[in-house]
Design brief:
The chain is α/β, with parallel strands linked by helices. The protein has helices at about 15-30, 40-45, 55-60, 65-70, 90-100, 115-130, 155-175, 195, 220-230, 275-285, 295-300, 305-325, 375-380; strands spanning about 5-10, 35-40, 50, 105-110, 135-140, 180-185, 210-215, 235-245, 255-260, 270, 290-295, 330-335, 345-350, 395, 400. The chain has 2 domains: about 5-155 and about 300-360 and about 385-405, Rossmann fold (3-Layer(aba) Sandwich), CATH 3.40.50.450; about 155-300, Phosphofructokinase domain (Rossmann fold, 3-Layer(aba) Sandwich). The chain is built from 13 helices and 15 strands. Helix 1 runs parallel beside helix 12 and helix 9 crosses helix 10. The longest helix has 19 residues, at about 155-175.
Length: about 400
């Protein structure tokens, strides 16, 4: 028997199920007898909660197609940081026992920075143990902050949603002949890629958002007040896009509530950068002002998904299986953008230890000198990633998705 197991973990995206679809389809073609899915990430594998995805394909000939365009995570997610295998090997011994019971040949982990930490530790453990079990990572994150890949699945679709929403908000805010400020808070704790995508909302007739603030440049309250005041001299409405993780010149988060408690991976839990800026500008300028937190829709709006994004997500999942077929392990699949006028990518790989727990920042030359906007280099980088529309299936006027898999079918 040659079986494999795949998990999804971290935050959901509009494209992560497309990566899962790519893994399943290619693994089936490669002759894996059973393709298992861990329920709720590595937690499900540890508790021996899995589903047989091979059976899902047999039950529904359109399963792969439906999975490709279903948002969030079909297998469910978790946020569990595995301990160092050299310090606490017992949990890995248990995983190894479960894998042997299921005749697992390869483990595929789909996720972001923290998920690649899991992939790295499993690969290290199996190598030290002398096991032939292969471990391959498949990237995803709307934050686009994974190292050594041009961009990440999920980002293109989230960027398309952000740009579309900002454009719609701009039209909304321009209708009244009164001075007003609107602030859109966009996800991005350590990097501002997604907030930068708000610039794609602009057209030759619409210059919104007028200000964009990313975490890569320290935020000056004084300059923001000056810039907003100056803009309002010649226009009635100003739209500001701000990353949730912006910091002031002292390095402190600009947020209404920078919670003291970190998450399980040591990341600060942020809340209300937009609300905090609303208060600051309201006190300083006195104009009508409101803040909007885009929040969850940034990562689940499949009705606005980028076809480029979903196709590349599928391709990366398929490429992961190809690496395993070549006998490789401890790698993460990557996207490499060709240096040509016409957008084209190839799939590669990188040792996962070079990616895990790292953060890819927005390059400084993608941000203007004052730190309140992006440059044409950023626009050129972003544009191809949002291209193409996904053919959706509708029922009673609403998009139709697969039922949530991890709630409907498990085997112990």
């Amino acid at each position: 028997m040659k079986n494999c197991i795949v998990i999804q973990s971290g935050g959901p995206t509009a494209a992560i199920n497309a990566s899962l679809a790519g893994v399943i389809k290619r693994a089936s073609e490669a002759g894996y007898d059973h393709i298992y899915g861990g329920i709720n990430g590595i937690v499900g594998v540890l508790s021996q909660k899995v589903m047989d995805l091979t059976e899902k394909m047999a039950e529904d000939p359109d399963f792969i197609e439906k999975l490709y365009r279903t948002p969030a995570m079909y297998l469910g997610s978790c946020r569990l940081r595995l301990p160092d295998p050299n310090v606490e090997p017992a949990i890995y011994d248990a995983l190894y026992s479960h894998f042997k019971r299921l005749d697992i040949d390869t483990f595929f982990g789909i996720g972001g920075n923290d998920s690649m930490d899991t992939v790295m530790k499993l690969a290290s453990y199996f190598k030290k143990k002398g096991s032939s079990i292969k471990v391959i990572g498949v990237p995803k994150t709307i934050d686009n902050d994974l190292l050594y890949t041009d961009h990440t699945p999920g980002f293109g679709s989230a960027a398309k949603y952000v740009a579309t929403t900002i454009r719609e908000m701009a039209y909304d805010t321009m209708i009244y002949p009164v001075k007003s400020i609107t602030i859109a808070e966009i996800m991005g704790r350590d990097s501002g890629w997604l907030t930068a995508a708000s610039a794609l909302a602009r057209t030759k007739d619409l210059n919104a958002p007028q200000l964009i603030y990313l975490p890569e440049v320290l935020f000056s309250v004084k300059e923001c007040i000056e810039d907003t005041k100056m803009l309002l001299k010649n226009r009635n409405s100003v739209l500001i896009a701000v990353s949730e993780g912006i910091r002031d010149t002292d390095g402190d988060y600009i947020s209404a509530s920078a919670l003291e408690k970190d998450d399980k991976f040591g990341h600060a839990q942020l809340s209300g950068a937009g609300k905090a800026l609303e208060h600051i500008l309201g006190q300083a300028l006195g104009f009508k002002i409101r803040s909007v937190e885009l929040n969850i829709p940034q990562r689940c709006a499949t009705h606005l998904a980028s076809k480029t994004d979903l196709d590349e997500a599928f391709g990366l999942g398929s490429a992961a299986v190809c690496l395993a077929e070549e006998g490789k392990t401890g790698l993460m699949t990557t996207i490499q953008r060709d240096d040509s006028e016409n957008y084209h990518v190839t799939y590669g790989s990188v040792p996962v230890y070079e990616v895990a727990n790292g953060v890819k920042k927005v390059p400084r030359d993608f941000i203007n000198e004052r730190g309140n906007d992006v440059t044409e280099k950023m626009i050129d980088y972003l544009k191809p990633l949002i291209k193409g529309e996904v053919d959706m299936s509708y029922n009673d006027g609403l998009p139709e998705f697969l039922p949530v898999g991890h709630l409907t079918s498990t085997i112990d």
